[in-house]
Amino acid sequence: MKAEWFWLSVIATGVLASAYLAVPAAAQEQRGAATIVAAKVRSQGFACNKPSSAKRIAAESAPNMPVYLLSCDVVTYHVVLIPDQAAIVVTKAE
Questions:
Q1: DSSP summary character for residue 93
Q2: Share of the chain above pLDDT 90, in %
Q3: What are the distances in angstroms from CA 65 to CA 25, 49, 77?
Q4: Which residues contact residue 28 at a Cβ distance below 8 angstroms, ignoring those fewer than 6 apart?
Q5: Whole-model pTM?
Q6: d(CA 93, CA 55)
Q7: Helices and strands per DSSP (H, E), number in the chain
């Protein structure tokens, strides 16, 4: 009986540890995308202080043309990134 509990606790610890380690990587990736997309938007004259997230919209994205929903402190933008061109930026009503 003790051996069963031991192995269950080992498995549970492994599952919890892997879940804990996966969250910071996903959060870091999200923050990185927000920083990059916000820089592009700002370079085109749009205000984006404190970007909080940039969620990729897979249904609207195409190869070499990702589409993001960028959330900044007071505004949200729908952004289409186009290689070697200006991005298409549309302000979304909140």
A1: P
A2: 57
A3: 24, 24, 16
A4: none
A5: 0.67
A6: 16
A7: 1, 4
**In angstroms, how far is the first alpha carbon of the chain from the final one?**
57
Report the candidate in 41, 74, 38 with the shortest Cα–Cα distance to residue 53: 38
What tokens does 11 get?
A: 């498995």
- Strands of the sheet with 88-92, listed across from one edge: 53-56, 67-71, 76-80, 88-92
Condensed to tens digits (0 to 9), the pLDDT of residues 42-73 reads 999 999 988 999 999 999 999 999 999 999 98
49 or 13: which carries more pLDDT confidence? 49
Tell me: pLDDT of 80 over 90.
Answer: yes
Say which residues have a Cβ less than 8 Å from residue 61's Cβ, sequence separation at least 6.
Answer: 67
> Which amino acid would we find at residue 13?
T
